[in-house]
Amino acid sequence: MQHKNLLDHKIGILGGGQLGKMLAIEAANWHLPIYILDQDQQFPAVPYAPFFQAGDFKNFDDVVHFGKKVDILTIEIEQINVDALFYLENEGVKVYPKPSTVKVIQDKGLQKMFYQERDIPTAGFQLFNDGKEIKEALKSKQITFPFVQKSRKDGYDGKGVVVVSNDNDVINLLDCPSIIEERINIKTEISILVARSASGELIHYEPVEQHFNQEANLVSFLICPAELDKGILSKMNEIASLIAIDLDLVGLLAIEFFLDENDDIFVNEVAPRPHNSGHHTQNSCETSQFEQHLRAILDLPLGSTRQHSIGAMVNIVGEPGYAGKTKYVGIEECMKIEGAHLHLYGKSETRPFRKMGHINIADKDRKKVLENIEKIKSTLRVIS
Question: What is residue 348's predicted lDDT score, i.e. its pLDDT?
Fold first, then answer.
């Protein structure tokens, strides 16, 4: 591998949210110049990046103008203008993840077809153009209850997903291009984080067990490593590697799996960037997911994923019923907990279930970690 002067690389990030912030903080350890494109200087990443450009990452011209200023362009969100990424790649800018990777992942319909073509286990699905087509398919028994509707594009953090159990839920159908999935009887939700460098070096993190807030369809907390049968873990790692290689991934990939009551494995979806399910790595692993992403896109040797502690993460989200200026209740009590590490995103306005930060827990004792998760969940609130 050729010697690289890190300071010669200008790294651009499309998106100035919390993931961009945490990438910029890691980049500061190496004194890397970080450029951010987003619409508002008030976004979380902006104070931590030396260079900010106001613009829309969904706009072709804004992305191209920004991308021409940097050597390596990466993302913190998939909902971006992929045509601009292809253009920049053709102009010689290193774009990671590659535009071809983003194109598949940002469209859940293309994602599902990608799995189907490779015999990767995933929930059965059908594609529809709008809500009217779905209702007609219900009448003709082409689809039956229960099922899950997912918008093909622009869904994130629980948005763009509707669980339809009976006729009463039909009113909630989204009127947009969608996939309709069979509803899996889920026993456990697992995430596996994979990193792959531009040279093809690939490494896995330990599996993460995710627990969701059912009302918001958001992760409430997670713990790592998940307690899994070795055979199941081996199969999940095999699938994760196949997906990363066939997508020609460069950077990080979070693969979300369902495990049903029969211990059958289903791939739910993937994200080609640092991910909520990898936040615990900041305080429980040799190499955080954010440093790992930078290593991968710079084509540096990937870092060790060894865990030195049981890792857990509790999402800090806006309390239902509150919207307005952010006020945290219970932070001081949570910071008294041994092994707890507070990460706030700096969002001045709260609203119900908005991600405002997270608390990582690192400890050798799994029982103690689980107890502290419950203590944090019952103590910390974000109100206005």
Answer: 95
